[in-house]
Amino acid sequence: MSVSPIHTVDKNGDEITTVGFNRFGFDCEVSLDVLRSLYLRPHYAVLNEHSDDADAEPLAQHAKFSQSLTAYQSKSIFHPETNSISYTTLTRFTPVKLLPPSQRKRVLITGGAGFVGSHLVDRLMLLGHEVTVLDNFFTGSKTTVNHWIGHPNFEMVRHDVVEPFMIECDQIYHLACPASPPHYQFNAVKTIKTSFMGTLNMLGLAKRTKARFLITSTSEVYGDPEVHPQHEEYWGHVNPIGPRACYDEGKRVAETLTYGFQRQDGVEVRVARIFNTYGPRSKVQYISEVNPYDGRVVSNFIVQALKGEDMTVYGDGKQTRSFQYIHDLIDGLIALMNSDESRPVNIGNGDEFTIGEFAELVRDIVEKVQDEDGVKRDHRVNIVYKPMPTDDPQMRRPDTTRAKESLQWQPRWTVRMGLEEMVRYYKAKMAEGNL
Ligand SMILES: NC(=O)c1ccc[n+]([C@@H]2O[C@H](COP(=O)([O-])OP(=O)(O)OC[C@H]3O[C@@H](n4cnc5c(N)ncnc54)[C@H](O)[C@@H]3O)[C@@H](O)[C@H]2O)c1
Protein backbone atom coordinates (compact mmCIF):
# COMPACT_ATOMS: atom_id res chain seq x y z
CA MET A 1 0.00 0.00 0.00
CA SER A 2 1.53 3.32 -1.00
CA VAL A 3 1.40 6.17 1.47
CA SER A 4 1.86 9.89 1.18
CA PRO A 5 3.40 11.95 3.98
CA ILE A 6 1.12 14.14 6.11
CA HIS A 7 1.80 17.86 5.92
CA THR A 8 1.33 19.93 9.04
CA VAL A 9 1.34 23.69 8.73
CA ASP A 10 1.51 26.39 11.38
CA LYS A 11 -0.57 29.55 11.81
CA ASN A 12 1.36 31.29 9.00
CA GLY A 13 0.92 28.39 6.61
CA ASP A 14 4.58 27.31 6.96
CA GLU A 15 5.20 23.59 7.19
CA ILE A 16 6.03 22.26 10.67
CA THR A 17 8.82 19.71 10.45
CA THR A 18 10.32 20.20 13.91
CA VAL A 19 9.16 21.24 17.36
CA GLY A 20 11.21 23.14 19.93
CA PHE A 21 14.03 25.63 19.50
CA ASN A 22 17.52 26.50 20.66
CA ARG A 23 17.08 29.16 23.31
CA PHE A 24 18.75 30.15 26.59
CA GLY A 25 21.64 27.82 25.76
CA PHE A 26 19.35 24.79 25.68
CA ASP A 27 18.56 23.09 22.39
CA CYS A 28 15.15 21.43 22.52
CA GLU A 29 14.48 21.02 18.80
CA VAL A 30 13.47 17.57 17.54
CA SER A 31 12.03 16.22 14.31
CA LEU A 32 8.22 16.04 14.30
CA ASP A 33 8.27 12.71 12.43
CA VAL A 34 10.46 11.14 15.09
CA LEU A 35 8.33 12.50 17.92
CA ARG A 36 5.15 11.31 16.23
CA SER A 37 6.54 7.84 15.81
CA LEU A 38 6.38 7.61 19.62
CA TYR A 39 2.66 8.29 19.99
CA LEU A 40 1.09 7.70 16.60
CA ARG A 41 1.97 4.05 16.61
CA PRO A 42 -0.17 1.25 15.29
CA HIS A 43 0.31 0.18 18.91
CA TYR A 44 -2.18 -2.64 18.93
CA ALA A 45 -2.19 -4.62 15.71
CA VAL A 46 -5.08 -7.02 15.36
CA LEU A 47 -3.62 -10.34 14.32
CA ASN A 48 -5.36 -12.25 11.61
CA GLU A 49 -4.02 -15.80 11.68
CA HIS A 50 -5.01 -16.39 8.06
CA SER A 51 -3.06 -13.55 6.63
CA ASP A 52 0.71 -13.20 6.52
CA ASP A 53 0.68 -9.45 6.41
CA ALA A 54 -2.11 -8.61 8.84
CA ASP A 55 -0.09 -5.69 10.16
CA ALA A 56 0.42 -4.20 6.73
CA GLU A 57 -2.57 -1.87 6.83
CA PRO A 58 -1.95 -0.19 10.21
CA LEU A 59 1.78 -0.12 9.55
CA ALA A 60 1.27 1.51 6.18
CA GLN A 61 -1.06 4.10 7.68
CA HIS A 62 1.41 4.70 10.42
CA ALA A 63 4.22 5.21 7.92
CA LYS A 64 2.53 8.44 6.90
CA PHE A 65 3.79 9.88 10.15
CA SER A 66 6.77 7.85 11.16
CA GLN A 67 8.67 7.76 7.88
CA SER A 68 9.90 4.18 8.29
CA LEU A 69 10.81 4.50 11.97
CA THR A 70 8.71 1.42 12.74
CA ALA A 71 11.89 -0.62 13.19
CA TYR A 72 12.29 1.09 16.55
CA GLN A 73 8.86 0.21 17.90
CA SER A 74 7.54 -2.41 20.25
CA LYS A 75 4.22 -4.01 19.41
CA SER A 76 1.24 -5.30 21.30
CA ILE A 77 -0.56 -7.95 19.30
CA PHE A 78 -4.19 -8.61 20.08
CA HIS A 79 -5.58 -12.10 19.39
CA PRO A 80 -9.36 -11.65 19.14
CA GLU A 81 -10.16 -15.35 19.06
CA THR A 82 -8.61 -15.94 22.51
CA ASN A 83 -9.04 -12.38 23.79
CA SER A 84 -5.37 -12.29 24.73
CA ILE A 85 -2.48 -9.99 24.04
CA SER A 86 1.20 -10.62 23.39
CA TYR A 87 3.87 -7.98 23.85
CA THR A 88 7.10 -7.75 21.89
CA THR A 89 10.16 -6.21 23.50
CA LEU A 90 12.04 -3.49 21.77
CA THR A 91 15.41 -4.52 20.54
CA ARG A 92 16.38 -1.06 19.32
CA PHE A 93 15.23 2.25 20.74
CA THR A 94 14.49 5.34 18.70
CA PRO A 95 17.86 7.11 18.34
CA VAL A 96 18.51 9.87 20.87
CA LYS A 97 20.99 12.70 20.61
CA LEU A 98 24.49 11.96 21.86
CA LEU A 99 25.27 14.83 24.22
CA PRO A 100 28.63 15.49 25.81
CA PRO A 101 28.43 14.88 29.61
CA SER A 102 28.77 18.63 30.25
CA GLN A 103 25.49 19.26 28.41
CA ARG A 104 23.59 16.18 29.53
CA LYS A 105 21.14 17.03 32.30
CA ARG A 106 19.84 14.61 34.92
CA VAL A 107 16.15 15.44 34.85
CA LEU A 108 13.54 14.27 37.35
CA ILE A 109 9.92 14.40 36.13
CA THR A 110 7.26 13.76 38.75
CA GLY A 111 3.96 12.72 37.17
CA GLY A 112 5.97 11.74 34.08
CA ALA A 113 3.57 8.90 33.19
CA GLY A 114 0.64 11.31 32.75
CA PHE A 115 -0.56 13.19 29.69
CA VAL A 116 1.77 16.21 29.84
CA GLY A 117 4.60 14.36 31.58
CA SER A 118 4.89 11.65 28.93
CA HIS A 119 5.34 14.22 26.16
CA LEU A 120 8.00 15.98 28.22
CA VAL A 121 9.73 12.61 28.70
CA ASP A 122 9.70 11.96 24.93
CA ARG A 123 11.20 15.34 24.16
CA LEU A 124 13.94 15.25 26.81
CA MET A 125 14.84 11.65 25.95
CA LEU A 126 15.18 12.43 22.23
CA LEU A 127 17.37 15.39 23.18
CA GLY A 128 19.80 13.02 24.90
CA HIS A 129 19.18 13.83 28.58
CA GLU A 130 18.91 11.37 31.48
CA VAL A 131 15.31 11.17 32.60
CA THR A 132 13.85 9.70 35.78
CA VAL A 133 10.07 9.44 36.08
CA LEU A 134 8.46 9.37 39.51
CA ASP A 135 4.80 8.39 39.41
CA ASN A 136 2.26 6.51 41.52
CA PHE A 137 0.13 5.76 38.41
CA PHE A 138 -3.01 7.23 39.95
CA THR A 139 -4.04 8.83 36.66
CA GLY A 140 -0.94 8.01 34.62
CA SER A 141 0.05 4.73 33.05
CA LYS A 142 3.27 2.92 32.25
CA THR A 143 2.04 2.47 28.70
CA THR A 144 2.60 6.18 27.96
CA VAL A 145 6.36 5.80 28.34
CA ASN A 146 6.93 2.06 27.87
CA HIS A 147 8.82 2.75 24.64
CA TRP A 148 11.69 4.03 26.82
CA ILE A 149 11.72 1.29 29.45
CA GLY A 150 15.13 -0.40 29.37
CA HIS A 151 16.87 2.57 27.73
CA PRO A 152 20.11 3.42 29.55
CA ASN A 153 19.10 7.10 29.86
CA PHE A 154 15.67 6.28 31.33
CA GLU A 155 14.46 5.21 34.74
CA MET A 156 10.94 4.76 36.01
CA VAL A 157 10.12 4.67 39.72
CA ARG A 158 6.73 3.89 41.25
CA HIS A 159 6.59 6.37 44.09
CA ASP A 160 4.08 8.64 45.75
CA VAL A 161 5.40 12.18 46.05
CA VAL A 162 3.77 12.69 49.44
CA GLU A 163 6.69 10.56 50.68
CA PRO A 164 10.25 11.96 50.48
CA PHE A 165 12.49 10.76 47.65
CA MET A 166 16.26 11.06 47.27
CA ILE A 167 18.09 11.26 43.95
CA GLU A 168 20.86 13.36 42.42
CA CYS A 169 19.53 15.61 39.66
CA ASP A 170 20.02 18.94 37.88
CA GLN A 171 16.43 19.83 37.01
CA ILE A 172 13.08 18.87 38.55
CA TYR A 173 9.84 19.19 36.61
CA HIS A 174 7.20 18.74 39.29
CA LEU A 175 3.96 17.72 37.56
CA ALA A 176 2.57 15.04 39.90
CA CYS A 177 -1.06 15.92 40.64
CA PRO A 178 -4.34 14.71 39.16
CA ALA A 179 -5.49 17.40 36.74
CA SER A 180 -9.08 16.76 35.71
CA PRO A 181 -12.07 17.48 37.99
CA PRO A 182 -13.34 13.88 38.35
CA HIS A 183 -9.84 12.72 39.24
CA TYR A 184 -8.90 15.47 41.68
CA GLN A 185 -12.32 15.38 43.34
CA PHE A 186 -12.20 11.58 43.70
CA ASN A 187 -10.14 11.99 46.89
CA ALA A 188 -9.97 15.69 47.71
CA VAL A 189 -7.83 15.24 50.82
CA LYS A 190 -5.27 13.24 48.85
CA THR A 191 -5.22 15.93 46.15
CA ILE A 192 -4.35 18.60 48.75
CA LYS A 193 -1.75 16.31 50.32
CA THR A 194 -0.20 15.73 46.89
CA SER A 195 -0.09 19.46 46.18
CA PHE A 196 1.30 20.44 49.56
CA MET A 197 3.44 17.54 50.77
CA GLY A 198 4.49 16.47 47.29
CA THR A 199 5.68 19.98 46.48
CA LEU A 200 7.35 20.30 49.90
CA ASN A 201 9.27 17.06 49.32
CA MET A 202 10.36 18.01 45.82
CA LEU A 203 11.42 21.50 46.92
CA GLY A 204 13.42 19.91 49.74
CA LEU A 205 15.12 17.73 47.15
CA ALA A 206 15.83 20.78 44.97
CA LYS A 207 17.35 22.57 47.98
CA ARG A 208 19.62 19.61 48.82
CA THR A 209 20.76 18.90 45.25
CA LYS A 210 20.73 22.56 44.08
CA ALA A 211 18.55 21.43 41.19
CA ARG A 212 16.38 23.95 39.39
CA PHE A 213 12.71 23.37 40.22
CA LEU A 214 9.74 23.95 37.90
CA ILE A 215 6.16 23.45 39.06
CA THR A 216 3.21 23.06 36.71
CA SER A 217 0.63 25.33 38.27
CA THR A 218 -2.65 26.11 36.58
CA SER A 219 -4.99 28.80 35.33
CA GLU A 220 -7.31 27.55 38.12
CA VAL A 221 -5.29 29.68 40.57
CA TYR A 222 -7.24 32.61 39.05
CA GLY A 223 -10.49 30.90 40.11
CA ASP A 224 -13.59 32.57 38.75
CA PRO A 225 -11.74 35.66 37.49
CA GLU A 226 -12.96 39.22 37.44
CA VAL A 227 -10.15 40.20 35.05
CA HIS A 228 -10.11 39.16 31.37
CA PRO A 229 -7.82 37.97 29.97
CA GLN A 230 -5.85 36.88 33.05
CA HIS A 231 -2.32 38.25 33.50
CA GLU A 232 0.13 36.95 36.07
CA GLU A 233 -0.23 39.93 38.41
CA TYR A 234 -3.89 39.10 39.02
CA TRP A 235 -4.32 37.46 42.45
CA GLY A 236 -7.39 35.45 41.56
CA HIS A 237 -10.88 34.89 42.90
CA VAL A 238 -11.06 31.39 44.37
CA ASN A 239 -13.74 29.80 46.54
CA PRO A 240 -11.66 28.17 49.33
CA ILE A 241 -14.34 25.65 50.32
CA GLY A 242 -15.96 24.63 47.03
CA PRO A 243 -15.55 21.20 45.37
CA ARG A 244 -12.74 22.49 43.14
CA ALA A 245 -10.82 24.05 46.06
CA CYS A 246 -8.70 20.93 46.71
CA TYR A 247 -7.06 21.54 43.33
CA ASP A 248 -7.21 25.36 43.07
CA GLU A 249 -6.07 26.06 46.62
CA GLY A 250 -3.66 23.12 46.47
CA LYS A 251 -1.88 24.74 43.53
CA ARG A 252 -1.98 28.16 45.20
CA VAL A 253 -0.30 26.86 48.35
CA ALA A 254 2.17 24.94 46.17
CA GLU A 255 3.13 28.25 44.54
CA THR A 256 3.44 29.85 48.01
CA LEU A 257 5.78 27.05 49.12
CA THR A 258 7.79 27.41 45.92
CA TYR A 259 8.44 31.11 46.50
CA GLY A 260 9.09 30.40 50.21
CA PHE A 261 11.98 28.10 49.25
CA GLN A 262 13.22 30.69 46.78
CA ARG A 263 13.28 33.51 49.37
CA GLN A 264 14.49 31.48 52.34
CA ASP A 265 16.81 28.94 50.77
CA GLY A 266 17.76 30.41 47.41
CA VAL A 267 16.23 27.53 45.43
CA GLU A 268 16.03 28.38 41.72
CA VAL A 269 12.32 28.16 40.93
CA ARG A 270 10.10 28.38 37.84
CA VAL A 271 6.30 28.54 37.92
CA ALA A 272 4.24 27.69 34.82
CA ARG A 273 0.54 28.52 34.97
CA ILE A 274 -0.88 26.18 32.36
CA PHE A 275 -4.16 26.81 30.57
CA ASN A 276 -6.31 24.09 28.94
CA THR A 277 -4.21 21.73 26.89
CA TYR A 278 -5.16 18.89 24.55
CA GLY A 279 -3.27 16.25 22.63
CA PRO A 280 -2.65 12.54 22.22
CA ARG A 281 -2.61 10.56 25.49
CA SER A 282 -5.06 12.89 27.24
CA LYS A 283 -7.64 10.77 28.97
CA VAL A 284 -11.12 10.16 27.72
CA GLN A 285 -13.99 10.40 30.18
CA TYR A 286 -17.66 9.89 29.79
CA ILE A 287 -19.02 13.17 28.55
CA SER A 288 -21.41 13.54 31.47
CA GLU A 289 -18.44 13.76 33.83
CA VAL A 290 -16.61 16.30 31.79
CA ASN A 291 -16.93 19.95 32.33
CA PRO A 292 -17.50 21.45 28.90
CA TYR A 293 -14.63 23.85 29.59
CA ASP A 294 -12.17 21.11 30.38
CA GLY A 295 -9.54 20.44 27.67
CA ARG A 296 -10.66 16.82 27.78
CA VAL A 297 -13.84 17.82 26.02
CA VAL A 298 -11.74 17.63 22.86
CA SER A 299 -10.89 13.95 23.28
CA ASN A 300 -14.51 13.19 24.11
CA PHE A 301 -15.79 14.84 20.93
CA ILE A 302 -13.27 12.89 18.88
CA VAL A 303 -14.14 9.54 20.40
CA GLN A 304 -17.88 10.14 20.03
CA ALA A 305 -17.43 11.08 16.38
CA LEU A 306 -15.15 8.11 15.66
CA LYS A 307 -17.66 5.76 17.24
CA GLY A 308 -20.49 7.30 15.20
CA GLU A 309 -22.27 8.47 18.38
CA ASP A 310 -24.00 11.81 18.89
CA MET A 311 -21.59 14.56 19.98
CA THR A 312 -22.84 16.29 23.11
CA VAL A 313 -22.50 20.04 23.52
CA TYR A 314 -23.59 21.55 26.85
CA GLY A 315 -25.37 24.89 26.61
CA ASP A 316 -26.12 26.61 23.32
CA GLY A 317 -22.58 26.01 22.02
CA LYS A 318 -21.88 29.75 21.74
CA GLN A 319 -19.65 29.86 24.82
CA THR A 320 -16.00 30.26 23.84
CA ARG A 321 -12.91 28.45 25.00
CA SER A 322 -9.25 28.34 24.04
CA PHE A 323 -7.13 25.20 23.94
CA GLN A 324 -3.40 24.84 23.38
CA TYR A 325 -1.75 21.91 21.71
CA ILE A 326 0.59 19.73 23.74
CA HIS A 327 3.74 20.45 21.70
CA ASP A 328 3.35 24.19 22.28
CA LEU A 329 3.06 23.56 26.03
CA ILE A 330 6.19 21.38 26.09
CA ASP A 331 8.10 24.09 24.17
CA GLY A 332 6.94 26.62 26.79
CA LEU A 333 7.87 24.45 29.79
CA ILE A 334 11.36 23.73 28.48
CA ALA A 335 11.92 27.39 27.56
CA LEU A 336 10.79 28.48 31.04
CA MET A 337 12.97 25.92 32.83
CA ASN A 338 16.07 27.09 31.00
CA SER A 339 15.33 30.84 31.04
CA ASP A 340 16.09 33.35 33.80
CA GLU A 341 12.39 34.06 34.39
CA SER A 342 11.48 33.17 37.99
CA ARG A 343 8.10 34.93 38.10
CA PRO A 344 4.96 32.91 37.28
CA VAL A 345 4.36 32.61 33.52
CA ASN A 346 1.05 31.86 31.79
CA ILE A 347 1.37 29.20 29.09
CA GLY A 348 -1.72 28.87 26.96
CA ASN A 349 -3.31 29.65 23.62
CA GLY A 350 -5.52 32.73 23.46
CA ASP A 351 -7.32 31.78 20.22
CA GLU A 352 -10.98 31.46 21.10
CA PHE A 353 -13.47 29.08 19.51
CA THR A 354 -17.07 28.47 20.37
CA ILE A 355 -17.73 24.96 21.67
CA GLY A 356 -20.22 24.54 18.80
CA GLU A 357 -17.51 25.43 16.25
CA PHE A 358 -15.20 22.96 17.95
CA ALA A 359 -17.70 20.16 17.66
CA GLU A 360 -18.22 20.87 13.95
CA LEU A 361 -14.49 21.05 13.32
CA VAL A 362 -13.93 17.73 15.08
CA ARG A 363 -16.68 16.11 13.01
CA ASP A 364 -15.18 17.46 9.74
CA ILE A 365 -11.70 16.25 10.63
CA VAL A 366 -12.89 12.81 11.70
CA GLU A 367 -14.69 12.49 8.36
CA LYS A 368 -11.60 13.66 6.46
CA VAL A 369 -9.40 11.06 8.18
CA GLN A 370 -12.00 8.33 7.64
CA ASP A 371 -12.22 9.24 3.94
CA GLU A 372 -8.42 9.19 3.59
CA ASP A 373 -8.29 5.75 5.21
CA GLY A 374 -11.20 4.41 3.15
CA VAL A 375 -13.50 3.95 6.17
CA LYS A 376 -17.18 3.91 5.18
CA ARG A 377 -19.74 5.72 7.37
CA ASP A 378 -23.35 4.65 7.48
CA HIS A 379 -24.49 8.08 8.76
CA ARG A 380 -23.22 11.54 9.66
CA VAL A 381 -22.99 11.97 13.44
CA ASN A 382 -25.32 14.51 15.01
CA ILE A 383 -24.31 17.34 17.32
CA VAL A 384 -26.81 17.45 20.18
CA TYR A 385 -27.24 20.25 22.71
CA LYS A 386 -27.96 19.63 26.41
CA PRO A 387 -28.52 22.04 29.33
CA MET A 388 -25.41 23.60 30.82
CA PRO A 389 -24.38 22.26 34.25
CA THR A 390 -24.95 24.89 36.95
CA ASP A 391 -21.47 24.96 38.55
CA ASP A 392 -19.60 26.02 35.43
CA PRO A 393 -16.60 28.26 35.88
CA GLN A 394 -16.56 31.51 33.97
CA MET A 395 -14.49 31.95 30.86
CA ARG A 396 -10.72 31.88 31.11
CA ARG A 397 -8.28 33.23 28.56
CA PRO A 398 -4.54 33.70 29.05
CA ASP A 399 -2.66 36.92 28.70
CA THR A 400 0.62 35.50 27.40
CA THR A 401 2.53 38.78 27.06
CA ARG A 402 5.07 37.69 29.68
CA ALA A 403 5.78 34.38 27.94
CA LYS A 404 6.24 36.27 24.69
CA GLU A 405 8.59 38.85 26.17
CA SER A 406 10.59 36.67 28.56
CA LEU A 407 10.65 33.36 26.71
CA GLN A 408 10.01 34.52 23.13
CA TRP A 409 7.36 31.83 23.21
CA GLN A 410 4.12 31.84 21.27
CA PRO A 411 1.81 28.97 20.28
CA ARG A 412 2.50 27.64 16.77
CA TRP A 413 -0.07 24.90 16.36
CA THR A 414 -3.44 25.62 14.83
CA VAL A 415 -6.42 23.88 16.32
CA ARG A 416 -7.05 22.04 13.05
CA MET A 417 -3.53 20.58 12.92
CA GLY A 418 -3.66 19.49 16.53
CA LEU A 419 -7.06 17.90 16.08
CA GLU A 420 -5.97 15.95 13.05
CA GLU A 421 -3.14 14.34 15.00
CA MET A 422 -5.48 13.54 17.84
CA VAL A 423 -8.02 11.90 15.55
CA ARG A 424 -5.23 9.70 14.16
CA TYR A 425 -4.15 8.81 17.68
CA TYR A 426 -7.62 7.85 18.92
CA LYS A 427 -8.37 5.96 15.74
CA ALA A 428 -5.31 3.80 16.41
CA LYS A 429 -6.29 3.49 20.08
CA MET A 430 -9.75 2.29 19.16
CA ALA A 431 -8.17 -0.79 17.64
CA GLU A 432 -7.28 -1.73 21.21
CA GLY A 433 -10.99 -2.10 21.83
CA ASN A 434 -11.01 -0.27 25.15
CA LEU A 435 -12.20 3.17 24.12
N1 LIG B 1 -3.66 19.14 31.09
C1 LIG B 1 -4.00 20.39 31.34
O1 LIG B 1 -4.78 21.00 30.58
C2 LIG B 1 -3.40 21.11 32.54
C3 LIG B 1 -3.82 22.42 32.81
C4 LIG B 1 -3.28 23.08 33.91
C5 LIG B 1 -2.33 22.48 34.71
N2 LIG B 1 -1.94 21.21 34.45
C6 LIG B 1 -0.96 20.59 35.37
O2 LIG B 1 -0.02 19.81 34.65
C7 LIG B 1 0.33 18.65 35.41
C8 LIG B 1 0.11 17.40 34.58
O3 LIG B 1 -1.25 17.33 34.18
P1 LIG B 1 -1.80 16.19 33.19
O4 LIG B 1 -2.85 16.79 32.35
O5 LIG B 1 -0.65 15.51 32.55
O6 LIG B 1 -2.51 15.23 34.25
P2 LIG B 1 -2.44 13.65 34.39
O7 LIG B 1 -3.46 13.28 35.39
O8 LIG B 1 -2.48 13.00 33.05
O9 LIG B 1 -0.98 13.43 35.00
C9 LIG B 1 -0.66 13.57 36.36
C10 LIG B 1 0.36 12.50 36.73
O10 LIG B 1 0.70 12.64 38.11
C11 LIG B 1 0.65 11.35 38.73
N3 LIG B 1 0.35 11.53 40.15
C12 LIG B 1 -0.78 12.02 40.72
N4 LIG B 1 -0.67 12.04 42.06
C13 LIG B 1 0.58 11.57 42.35
C14 LIG B 1 1.30 11.34 43.55
N5 LIG B 1 0.75 11.60 44.74
N6 LIG B 1 2.55 10.82 43.47
C15 LIG B 1 3.12 10.53 42.28
N7 LIG B 1 2.49 10.73 41.10
C16 LIG B 1 1.23 11.25 41.14
C17 LIG B 1 -0.44 10.62 37.99
O11 LIG B 1 -0.39 9.22 38.12
C18 LIG B 1 -0.19 11.08 36.56
O12 LIG B 1 0.76 10.27 35.90
C19 LIG B 1 -0.50 18.69 36.69
O13 LIG B 1 0.28 19.25 37.73
C20 LIG B 1 -1.63 19.64 36.34
O14 LIG B 1 -2.12 20.29 37.48
C21 LIG B 1 -2.45 20.51 33.39
Q: What structural class is derived from the secondary structure elements?
A: alpha/beta
- Outline: globular
What is the assembly state of the chains in this entry?
single chain
Strand order of the largest sheet: 10-9-8-11-12-13-18
Key traits:
33% helix, 17% strand, 3-stranded mixed β-sheet, 20 strands, alpha/beta, binds nicotinamide-adenine-dinucleotide, Rossmann fold, 7-stranded parallel β-sheet
Structure in words:
The chain is an alpha/beta fold and 435 residues long. It has one domain (18-430): NAD(P)-binding Rossmann-like Domain (Rossmann fold, 3-Layer(aba) Sandwich). It has helices at residues 32-39, 56-66, 115-126, 181-186, 188-209, 245-265, 297-307, 326-338, 355-372, 401-407, 415-430, and strands at 18-19, 22-23, 26-27, 30-31, 44-46, 76-79, 84-87, 106-110, 130-135, 154-158, 171-174, 212-218, 269-274, 277-278, 311-314, 320-321, 324-325, 344-347, 353-354, 383-386. It has a seven-stranded parallel sheet, with helices on both faces. Strand 6 (76-79) and strand 7 form a beta hairpin. Bound molecules: nicotinamide-adenine-dinucleotide. Nicotinamide-adenine-dinucleotide is lined by residues 110-111, 113-117, 135-140, 160-162, 175-179, 183, 194, 198, 216, 218, 274, 276-277, 295. Its cofactor is NAD(+).
List the helices and strands and how they pair.
Elements: E1 18-19, E2 22-23, E3 26-27, E4 30-31, H1 32-39, E5 44-46, H2 56-66, E6 76-79, E7 84-87, E8 106-110, H3 115-126, E9 130-135, E10 154-158, E11 171-174, H4 181-186, H5 188-209, E12 212-218, H6 245-265, E13 269-274, E14 277-278, H7 297-307, E15 311-314, E16 320-321, E17 324-325, H8 326-338, E18 344-347, E19 353-354, H9 355-372, E20 383-386, H10 401-407, H11 415-430
Helix pairs in contact: 3-8, 5-6, 7-9, 7-11, 9-11
Bound molecules: nicotinamide-adenine-dinucleotide.
Cofactor: NAD(+)
Protein name: UDP-glucuronate decarboxylase
Main location: cytoplasm
